[in-house]
Amino acid sequence: MQSKLDVNANLHLKVSTQLIRPVNITSLTTGDKLWGCYYYYGNKLGASRNLAGLDVLSEINCSRRVPSAILLGVKKCGSQTLTGFLDLHPDVVSRVFPFSENTISSLMENNDAFLKAMPLSTPNEQTFIDMIEIQNDPQFLPHLTTNLNSNTTKYLLILVNPVARAQSDYVHVNVKMKLPQNSKLVKREIMSVWDKKLLHRKEPNVLFKGYRIAGTLERSVLNASGIIDKGNNLIKKGIYYDYVKEILKYVSRDRLLVVDGEQFISEPWLVLRQVEKFLGISSYFKKSFFTKIGKFYCPVFIERPDAGCLKGKGRKKKKIDQKTNKRLQRFFQPYNRKLENLLGEKLSWM
Ligand SMILES: Nc1ncnc2c1ncn2[C@@H]1O[C@H](COP(=O)(O)OS(=O)(=O)O)[C@@H](OP(=O)(O)O)[C@H]1O
């Protein structure tokens, strides 16, 4: 049996630099800004970062540290945005945990590999990771929580109205299905149509990674008998009660913060202040850091040229027809009530 990860464990430079080759300082341009262990830069093609030079890394004691907080969010609820915003806090280094099929199990089974997947941080920074994919594999929750060997690790969730989540996920899955790397999969999956009557039509009629996707959201969420399909991930992922109940088996309530994803859209600075308090970090975010562009607030920071609106978010959605909307709201209501009782708090959309 492998030993548990000590909260004070960190992986020092020798190992970490084998994974990422640090940038040579002379190759940096004037737009680059050093922030913790990384240089950040933005350009027309997007934003990015590079590891700082070895001299800087050793001077400020950069290591890979065990995360002090983990986001166990739900897909399309704003997890990536929250993670991106938190990375702008001077006391935090946050990253989306590098998931791909199977990486989660291999990383969980090997402490060193798990630690190697962490970003570099200084002793003054907390490591925060976004592990939303855990909702697909909640069997890793006991492994994750016991392996961290800490009663101090904090957990977060961000949740939006499950109907809005389904709508966002529907658009997202449609985009993903069309990507070239998925074309083979889609072709294969097209064989497993869910409605033979639709076979002759040129519209989505596929089973794709736990989703049943039809030409519209309305038709996707109802099964052949016209009943809301609880087995379809568009719906299943929005039954937050089941997921939170599972999390609370392993995490005490006082170590779990559930934030309101709808409020995060309208007033991100308020949600970020709530997160700062929960993490016990300095109060940093304020309204003036954000500029509203379209529907969303985007951070503007001269210290971080990579900050800005997130790519691939805010995709256009068709309005859900009123009847289906009402039906879906009614469907989720009892689960939302149960969730409210379980948490002992009511979010704006409940
Ligand atoms: N400030 C800001 N900027 C952009 N997007 C914002 C923001 N705040 C919340 N959101 C909401 O985040 C939704 C995407 O959720 P996730 O980041 O969890 O997506 S993912 O599951 O990780 O792909 C995204 O959903 P879509 O609008 O469907 O893209 C947004 O509703």
TrEMBL record:
Binding site for 3'-phosphoadenylyl sulfate: S168, Y297
Record: active site: K76
Molecular-function GO terms, alphabetical: [heparan sulfate]-glucosamine 3-sulfotransferase activity
Gene3D superfamilies: P-loop containing nucleotide triphosphate hydrolases
Keywords: Disulfide bond, Glycoprotein, Transferase
SUPFAM superfamilies: P-loop containing nucleoside triphosphate hydrolases
Pfam family, one: Sulfotransfer_1
Ranges for domain Sulfotransferase: 69-337
Keyword Aminoacyl-tRNA synthetase on entry: no
Coiled-coil regions listed: none
Disulfide bonds: C298-C309
Protein name: Heparan sulfate glucosamine 3-O-sulfotransferase 5
